[in-house]
Amino acid sequence: MVRTLLWILAAVLLGGIVHLSTVLAMPQAAKQDAYSRLAPLTQVNTMVPLAATKAGAEIMPFMDPAFAAAVCRYDLSGGPLKLIAPVSQAYTSVTFYTRRSVAFYAINDRAAGRRTIELDLMTAAQHAQVPEDEEVTAADRLIIESPTPMGLIVLRALAPEPGLMPMARQALAAATCRIQSQ
Question: What would the pLDDT profile of 74-88 be if each residue is shown by its tens digit?
């Protein structure tokens, strides 16, 4: 009886280890991650509005049809990136993802406290080269450090009613993401 229980315990433990390692390895093994799906639709360091979501034909899984979305595939090898995104009437959010779809920073219009979300995205090495200006405070210049040189910026604007979707799309169309000029 004890031997049978030990075999069952060993099988459950081995099954748990295999399951956990498979779940943890899945994001690295996936061929159709967000970056790969958006590569044919977007240019690097350019904000591109995504088409309206239709049931069963979403570009990305779990996209909410009440939100207009725009994406910027960034590559920081050419220098720091400047993101300027006007906020919509209802709600606007910006989320930053690494190349492997790991979210590392997010901000919304309420946290920004302005009519425009404006920030600089750079690697840690690029941030170390930025000269310190005593007159510029952290509230004046928001700098985000990217853990990887490539990734995604996803900008979303809420349209609380279907008739307000054109205004949400218009806010996203005015957003820019480009390499900073020195």
Answer: 999 988 999 999 888
User: CA-CA distances (angstroms) from residue 164 to 62, 66, 154?
Assistant: 21, 10, 20
**Same domain membership, residue 21 and residue 56:** no
Residue 124 has pLDDT above 70, yes or no: yes
Nearest CA-CA partner of 105 in 78, 83, 125, 88: 83
Nearest to 69 by CA among 179, 153, 178: 153
Query: Of 161, 164, 178, 155, which is closest to residue 109 (Cα–Cα)?
Result: 155
Q: Which CATH number covers residue 168? A: 2.60.40.1610
Which domain, by its residues, includes 21? 1-30
> Residues in the chain, how many?
182
Cβ proximity of 71 and 50 under 8 Å: yes
Same domain, 12 and 52: no
Q: Name the domain count of the chain.
A: 2
Gap between the Cα atoms of 151 and 134, Å rounded:
31
Q: What is the mean pLDDT of residues 64-79?
A: 90
Residues 78 and 166 in one domain: yes
Residue 138 tokens, joined: 């952290």
Q: Are residues 155 and 124 in the same domain?
A: yes
Distance CA 160, CA 105 (A): 25
Which residues does 83 contact at the CB level (< 8 Å), separation at least 6?
72, 94, 117, 118, 119, 120, 121, 153, 175, 176, 177
How many angstroms separate the CA atoms of 80 and 53, rounded?
Answer: 31
